[in-house]
Amino acid sequence: MKLLLISSFALLAVACNSTKTAETKKMTPVDYANTITAEDLKTHLYIFADDKMEGRMTGSDGQKLAAEYLRNFYQDQGIAAPVEPNNYYQNIPAEYFSRMKTPAASENVVAFIKGSEKPDEIIVLSAHYDHVGMENGKIFNGADDDGSGTVAMLEMAEAFQKAVKEGNGPKRSILFLHVTGEEIGLYGSKYYTENPIFPLANTVANLNTDMIGRIDPNKKDNPNYIYLIGSDKLSQGLHDLSEKVAAKYSDLELDYTFNDENDPNRFYYRSDHYNFAKNNVPIIFYFNGVHEDYHQATDTPDKIEYELMAKRTQLIFHTAWEIANQEERITADKL
């Protein structure tokens, strides 16, 4: 009887230890980041940058089809619309797009994970899902620009939602913002910041992902990198957090070449993060640089470096995770 009792306690101890191990593993952000895979990114991108999307020009049938793909993904994942039930579109009227030859209504696609402890503090993850459409019978698929950032957001959203389902969701809320109209003048992000779903005063940071699937020819001998732009422009706290996360979770080189105030390319002003920065929201712009297929019909999904893209996406996820879960709120401390 005594032996049986000891054995029972031993079995119970093993079971408890196994449960604790499983619970500890669930709380590790690395486990969620590792659900972001090259294979899944490739699957999404071959659909999103397919000829059927017709280059995703703002207001076109192809852009509408792309918006449906994003909406359906969030619905399938059980990730909520941010305001009205099942309304994942922030509609933008045709007259807003003044630079188009024939203005057409369009929409940002939005989805929302509510924070468990600080739900009124919002992190915005953004990427533009439009591209330049078709010209002379050629389809500009925009696989890197910005299909790569778009599908990276889908994978990050799925990872965060897995954490939510396992009781380990983010403490702060996360808005997944897929903007339209970037290629014609940053219109979708401009519209959002002028008509925010959540007050900009409550927006902790914007992490913007625009082109992360290729290698800059200038980095061909050192491809394990990502360009960061703007991380220190408004918030030293955000910059320091970004550096800390990269050192802990990634072997990617953080390259600040285009963060220089004298950068002739002026990339800081050329993607959707800028409309948040103008409103004093701390930002980071993740970017792989331009290449020979930039804004060409040859920007196709077969040329994407999927393993590298997965590493870059995981880094962004880890950064968002840290911003969402650390005790102190990121603030604009360089105003």
From the structure above, extract its key features.
alpha/beta, eight-stranded mixed sheet, two-stranded antiparallel sheet, 38% helix, globular, disordered N terminus, M28_fam, EF_Hand_1_Ca_BS
Helix-strand sequence:
HHHHEEEEEHEHEEHEHEH
Say what the CATH topology is.
Aminopeptidase
Main β-sheet, spatial strand arrangement: 1-2-6-3-7-10-8-9
CATH class: Alpha Beta
What would you call the structural class?
A: alpha/beta
In terms of DSSP E residues, the strand content is: 15-25%
In CATH, the architecture is: 3-Layer(aba) Sandwich
Radius of gyration: 21 Å
User: Overall pLDDT, averaged?
Assistant: 93
- What distance lies between the first and last C-alpha atoms, to the nearest angstrom? 73 Å
Number of strands: 10
Shape: globular
How much helicity do the residues have?
Answer: 25-40%
- Structure annotation, total helices: 9
Superfamily at the CATH H level? Zn peptidases
| Domain module count | 1
Low-confidence stretches: 1-9, 18-25
Query: How would you characterize the largest beta sheet?
Result: 8 strands, mixed
Keywords: Signal
GO biological process, one term: proteolysis
Signal peptide: 1-22
Organism: Rasiella rasia
